[in-house]
Structures are given as C-alpha cells and as structure tokens.
Amino acid sequence: MITLYTIINWLLIFSYWLLIACVTLRILMKRRAVPSAMAWLLVIYILPLVGIIIYLLLGELNIGKRRYERNKAVCPSINQWIDNLKCCQQIFSTANSEVARSLFQLCAHRQGISGLRGNKIQLLTNTYETMKSLIRDISLAQRNIEIVFYIWQAGGVVDKVAEALMAAARRGVFCRLMLDSAGCVHFFCSPYPAMMRNAGVKVVEVLHVSILCVFLRRMDLRQHRKMVLIDNYISYTGSMNMVDPRYFKQKAGVGQWIDMMTRMEGPITMVMGIIYSRDWEIETGQRIQPPAENIIPFEYSNSNNTVQVIASGPGFPEGVIHQALLTAIYAAREELIITTPYLVPSDDLLHAICTAAQRGVKVQIIIPLDNDSLLVRWASRSFLSELLEAGVLIHQFEGGLLHTKSVLVDSQLSLVGTVNLDMRSLWLNFEITLVIDAKDFGSDLARVQEDYIAHSRLIDVIVWSKRPYWQRIIERLCYFLSPLL
C-alpha cells in the first residue's frame, strides 16, 4: 500500500527534476557563449539545489522592474540631448588614423555619436598627484560637480577630497555623488555620508546590497565606473578608486595599488555627462537637465586628438566594450600592449590576442604578480600557457597590485578606463572606457607601460611548462568557473 510519505517523496523528487529541467531549458534558450552555458550547467548539476539558487541569483542580468522602467523613460531625453550636441559640428572629428578608423566607426554606429576633437588630455599615473589635481579643480568649480566611484574609503588624502567637495556644496555648487553599495560598505558605515548631506552634497547609495533585494535583481551587478565631472567641461576617469593606497587593503599582502587616470578639458565631458545623467535617473528617478549651453573649447579646437567614450551596463549597447577590444586587437599591425589586473578573457578575446601574436604583432601583457582575488588569480593562470605558446610576452608586475586597465595599439590608438579583461566587466557591470586616437597620448601611455615592464618579471615559457602538476589541476578547475567571474 502506497503511504502518504511515499507520495510526498515522489512529488519532491519529481518537482526537483522538473525544476532542473526548467532551469536547464532556460540556460539553453538564452543567447550566451557556449563556455558560459556549459559552466552554468555544470554548476546546477554538480551542486544540487544550491546550483539552481546560485543561477537564479547570478545567472541572468536582472536590474529590477523599477530600474528597467526608468531606463525606458529616460531614453527619449537622452536621445534629444545627443541630437542637440550633434548640432555643434565643429566638435566632431571627420577623420581618424588607419589603425583607429574601424573602432571609431563601430562606436559611431552603436552609440549614435562620433568621436570628438578639441579636447585637452592629461595622463595621470601618481595617485597623490591625481588627488591634488582633483582637489584644485573641485575648489575652482562654479556650477556643478558629478562624481561616481565603485569604492570610496575614508582616510588619508581622500578626506581632503571630501572636504573640498563639501566646501564646494556650501558655496552653492550643485554636487551629486553616486557610490556603489558593495564597494563603499565601509564608507556608508562612517560619519561621512551624513556630513556630506548636511553640507548639501546629494549622496546616493547605488545598487543596494540587501537580503530583501536578493530575488528582485541580480546582486552582483555593480556600478564600477569612476568619473568626476566639473562644470560640464573638466572630467576625470580611469582605474583609480577614491582610496589612499597607503591604507587601502594593506592586509591583502599585495602592496599598494597602482592606477592610471586621465584628466580632460573639452566636449568629451558633455558626453560623459550624458552617461552620468542616465545612471542618475535609473537609480534615483530624478532627471538631470542638460546644460543651457554647450561648452565649446575654442582654444583646443585644433588639437590633433580624437576621443570617444564607451559606456556599458544595463540600458547601454550590449557587448560594445567587448566588440571595441576585439576591433582594436585585430587592427594591430606592429605592437599591442595590454595592462590588466584580472586576466580572464572570453574565448573570442583570447583567440584575437593569440592571432595577433601569430601574425607577427609584438604582443605584451602586463599583469600583477600578486592579486587580491585568489579565484581570479588561479583562473587567470589557466590562460597563460596558450598565450605563451602563441608568442605573447607576459610580464608580472612586482611593484604592487597593478590596477591599471589600458590597451595601446601601434603607439597610436589607446583604450583606458575601468574595464578588466574578465566576463564581469565585459558583460555585466556598469563600466566606462575612453578610446583615444592620438600619437602624443599614445607616446605618453607607452612610456608608462615601459616603466611597468621595467618593474616586472617576464614569464619564461620553459620554466612555466615545468610548473607542478597540482597547480595545473587547480588552474583547470578554476578555468571552468572563468565564464562566471
């Protein structure tokens, strides 16, 4: 005789396998890379129930219903803002160098705006010099300051930046500050948010980390941009978080973080302002009106550089930064230099890099010797053999955690910004990258990369091939998780 217990047991088993089948079908129906799909299938089959929960939390890009509706609502305003900017024909470039032409065509078609000329660009490689410059510009601001960072950690020189921002707000400058909830968890537990708000700074905690939001949106989606915009004319972006390297993650044992920022004056700041305004409205529901007049830098109108800014994340063109990197790599004819703290590329990027080396391009990749993420470090190692066999020169930086994200193609085309060479940056997070077509800037970036190489250890192919077998096993295990990192 069949007991109630038996019926319930069979119902639970049936429900479990039905759930497995439904999630499997959903993974297969989603348009995603095969390695990513295979990795998720392994997770849900190897980790019963736990794997399904992980997939429901992290497997799909879900920004939440409210943000999705706000993103739809802001589109007409953003398009109108871009159309108004296009009326200023003198700020748009009509020609690019041969190596940059395809990339700028891609950006123009996918983002609806061409590269801009008339910008003054300065490369900043010392965190403290960057902070001093930032404090000076904030102190001279007259109208508005917009800031977004993934990490803001109080202490050291960062407190002087905070003081300058609060002083600006007190004298009537309109100040907005967006900070990622996960990256700034210590900041939001400090007195600074209240102090800033009391001074008049609008402080917004972006993408709240909360147990109540777990099933409403994807929790590992992060606001990873780093931008400072001042008076619609001066802007900063790059890899640097708002931290003092002397105090940041000192217990991690990787040394001080080494970063790169760019300071710009000119119309590129207007485009970055459009990106910021979209992020602000998606998060807060409040609309930032475009400036009454377009800021045209006549004194730099003849500068021989062209700049494009690429933004990614929900609501922005899907995969555009990934496409930009592929286009830049395939355009290389002589030399390709890449710096990244996290090297977990997609199969397409790995193939493009190896192909560049195999067709005679001198390809060099600079990564930190020590990394703050153990899983990423081992996953990264799994790609090194294939790169080395293709002829890629891989340098391990020994002067700290090299956090700079940069690509230099033929000393002419530069990409600098917030994007790591991992799946999270390429397909998930809110990121920003500058594309700069300028020989002078390329020369400056090349000198910085040469300095990185001078403080690095070149990986020997023969020595690498003789590493212990247990290390290879760990590398391969972590490799299976690489599409999810």
TrEMBL record:
It is found in: Cell membrane. One of its GO terms (molecular function) is cardiolipin synthase activity. GO terms for biological process: cardiolipin biosynthetic process. Residues 219-246, 398-425 form the PLD phosphodiesterase domain. Its EC number is 2.7.8.-. Gene3D superfamilies: Endonuclease Chain A. Keywords: Cell inner membrane, Cell membrane, Lipid biosynthesis, Lipid metabolism, Membrane, Phospholipid biosynthesis, Phospholipid metabolism, Repeat, Transferase, Transmembrane, Transmembrane helix. It is a multi-pass membrane protein. InterPro entries: Cardiolipin_synthase, CL_synthase_A, CLS_N, PLD-like_dom, PLipase_D/transphosphatidylase. The chain crosses the membrane at residues 7-27, 39-58. It catalyses: 2 a 1,2-diacyl-sn-glycero-3-phospho-(1'-sn-glycerol) = a cardiolipin + glycerol. The active site is at H224, K226, D231, H403, K405, D410. GO terms for cellular component: plasma membrane. Signal peptide: none annotated. Its main location: membrane. It is an enzyme of class 2 (transferase). Catalyzes the reversible phosphatidyl group transfer from one phosphatidylglycerol molecule to another to form cardiolipin (CL) (diphosphatidylglycerol) and glycerol. Belongs to the phospholipase D family. Cardiolipin synthase subfamily. ClsA sub-subfamily. This is Cardiolipin synthase A. It comes from Candidatus Palibaumannia cicadellinicola. The gene is clsA.
